[in-house]
Amino acid sequence: MNIERDQRRFRQIVRGKIRDNLKKYVTHGEMLGRKGNDVVSIPVPALDVPRFRFGDNGNGGVGQGEGEEGDVVGRGDSQREGSGEAGKDPGGGHYMEVDISLDELAALLGEELELPRILPKGSERISSEKSKYNSIRPTGPESLRHFKRTYLRALQRQIGSGEYTPNDPRVIPTKADKQYRSWKVVEEPEVNAAVVYLMDVSGSMTDDQKEIVRTTAFWIDTWLASQYRGVEKRYIIHDAVAKVVDEQTFYHTRESGGTRISSAYRTCAALFENELPPADWNLYVFQFSDGDNWGEDNEQAFTLLDEKILPVVNQFCYGQVESPYGSGEFLGRLENEFSAQYESLVTCEIEDKDGIYDALKTFLGQGK
Question: What pLDDT does 218 receive?
């Protein structure tokens, strides 16, 4: 049908607009406040339908009226900067809200950043069998009898045979009237990838740095969800002590203590041991910090990384968010210690929001 063709064409145009502006959406988190369960609303430039515009008759035309050669055309006194009253006419730069699925958004991100598909390791096809009651049959156990359908079938039979009396509305089902729920065994995919986010929430990490982390994590979640049947998420915050928290707490907590990164690694390793065994999960760890750590803690942190985390994860990503208060020393020490030994280690510096785009390509471009 023509309308379906037009709808497809419109979607293609909108998709092109989103892709053209994707870097802006990535770096500034335009859609984070508009995210639903499966879709996100994105503001795109309004699409104007071409139409004729008619001027006032008798007001002159091209080459008519007063003026000298070289005068600027099309600017009247009312358009001078800083003058005039509030206008009543529409201006340019209109935007419209367009809903797009997270799967489609992930596809656009993959195309734009040229991200490779992830090849899962381990139990990438974890699934369980589940009975789904989705049909009706005339036989079955009494515990599965569908009372409403049985009653309606008996009522129809009695009305059709003339047995039903409105003044004495008794409906008595017979064996032939009974209807039972029936089931079908279906495979239900289970979660098979887990993402653990670690963040330093000591006093040197400001709200601006946390907003960068939040935006980066949104795009990481979107991409990984498109690569796996399900993704489980855990959040760990730390200063000198670490703890597992919910997502809201993760992005809105700020402490004033010192920094011991080893506390976060120890908590992460405990998650792997007790909840997310590496034999059953594809594990991803994303750590965000301003690079500060108590100097004497580095050795303990590196020991935990070397023994408990780096050997078992698909990927360990360390993003150093530049802060006016952080020293930024941890990134260099981490790279010197492990870059040559572990391919699963990926690091990058995120100076500001504009750095999110390159960070995503660094983190997700490994295809692990």
Answer: 87
Residue 291 CB coordination number (10 Å) = 23
Domain count, the chain: 3
Backbone angles phi, psi at 263, to 5 degrees: -65, -35
Given 84, 114, 144, the domain boundary residue is 114
The count of other CB atoms within 10 Å of the CB of residue 186 is 12
Tell me, yes or no, if the pTM score tops 0.85: no
Over residues 51-81, the pLDDT tens digits come to 555 555 555 555 555 666 666 655 555 444 5
Give me the domain span that covers residue 7.
Answer: 1-47+94-114
Q: How confident is the model over 218-243, as pLDDT tens digits?
A: 888 888 888 887 788 999 999 989 99
What gap in Å lies between CA 24 and CA 272, rounded to an integer?
36
Q: Which residues contact 205 (CB under 8 A, 6 or more apart)?
A: 199, 254, 289, 290, 321, 323, 326
> Are residues 209 and 352 located together in one domain of the fold?
yes
